[in-house]
């Protein structure tokens, strides 16, 4: 294996930049969550554009504010949100790969379209796996560039595995999401859905929901009509990605990658992985709608997505 070398130095950290591979699996029985990219779509395209295999670590940049200096010549790509990225002060094209020379500065500004951008480099960022993954989960102190779950800080250096590749790959227009547009979130009905009143179910799938400012990598609270459930208590059970819990206040919470591993609130169901990706790019105040789908529909959509990255 080619040894990793210094690739990018952090000149300014910004609020939240984390190293993420596909996630940490097989350890939820230990109370350890999965981590990984909250927008699987943007992360996958960033890696694909520089020729990296599925699962290669890339950088998740939330809200922008990050400035990086190249320590060596690199081929990189930025996908996902438009955070007004620039290279040496000039606007940087998203959803395509490009060459960066040693000493050049890459900066992310404020959100223009979406919330989270993904930066991948050819060869991939290198870090020591923890429990089989480099996925950074700050709350658990696991993974990331230093193995301790830390967000990037000024002066940190990201190691890169050298790789020979050329720039110029570009994502097709249909892959580039306009995150400002209407967000319809596919949801698989869950075990407790029959416990909600008929009026609540009608409102759940026919009303507009608004993304609350209480949103992070653990989950996103949705505000709208109050949902009523006949269940007053239940035994805590395992929580999967996208689970939509409804606490007593009747306002749903969609749980994402850094969620807790068990929960005791009734659930409408679970958002599909691609619906989670779309929700993760929504800014506070943005409106979304829930759409019930079958297991067959959800699997078909996910298989079509993954087929492009085989």
Automatic annotation (TrEMBL):
Pfam families: CT_A_B (PF02626). The keyword Metal-binding does not apply. Keywords: ATP-binding, Hydrolase, Nucleotide-binding. It comes from the Bacteria. The keyword ATP-binding applies. Residues 29-305 form the Carboxyltransferase domain. This is Biotin-dependent carboxyltransferase family protein. It comes from Halomonas rhizosphaerae.
């Amino acid at each position: 294996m080619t040894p990793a070398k210094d690739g990018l130095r952090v000149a300014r950290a910004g609020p939240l930049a984390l190293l993420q591979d596909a996630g940490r699996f097989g350890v939820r029985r230990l109370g350890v969550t999965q981590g990984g990219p909250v927008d699987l779509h943007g992360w996958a395209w960033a890696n694909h554009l520089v020729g990296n295999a599925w699962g290669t670590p890339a950088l998740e940049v939330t809200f922008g504010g990050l400035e990086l200096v190249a320590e060596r010549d690199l081929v990189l790509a930025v996908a996902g949100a438009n955070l007004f990225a620039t290279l040496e002060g000039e606007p940087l094209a998203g959803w395509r790969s490009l060459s960066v020379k040693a000493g050049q500065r890459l900066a992310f500004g404020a959100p223009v379209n979406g919330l989270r951008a993904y930066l991948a480099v050819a060869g991939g960022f290198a870090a020591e796996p923890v429990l089989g993954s480099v996925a950074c989960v700050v709350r658990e102190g696991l993974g990331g560039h230093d193995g301790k779950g830390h967000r990037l800080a000024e002066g940190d250096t990201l190691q890169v595995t050298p790789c020979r590749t050329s720039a110029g790959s570009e994502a097709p227009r249909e892959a580039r999401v306009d995150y400002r547009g209407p967000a319809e979130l596919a949801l698989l009905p869950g075990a407790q859905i029959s416990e909600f009143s008929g009026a609540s179910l009608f409102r759940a799938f026919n009303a507009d929901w608004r993304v609350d400012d209480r949103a992070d990598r653990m989950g996103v609270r949705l505000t709208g009509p109050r949902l009523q459930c006949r269940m007053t208590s239940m035994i805590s059970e395992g929580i999967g990605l996208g689970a939509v819990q409804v606490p007593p206040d009747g306002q749903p919470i969609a749980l994402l990658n850094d969620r807790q591993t068990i929960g005791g609130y009734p659930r409408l169901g679970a958002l599909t992985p691609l619906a989670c990706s779309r929700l993760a790019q929504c800014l506070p105040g943005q409106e979304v709608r829930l759409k019930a789908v079958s297991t067959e529909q959800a699997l078909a959509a996910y298989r079509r997505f993954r087929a492009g990255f085989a």
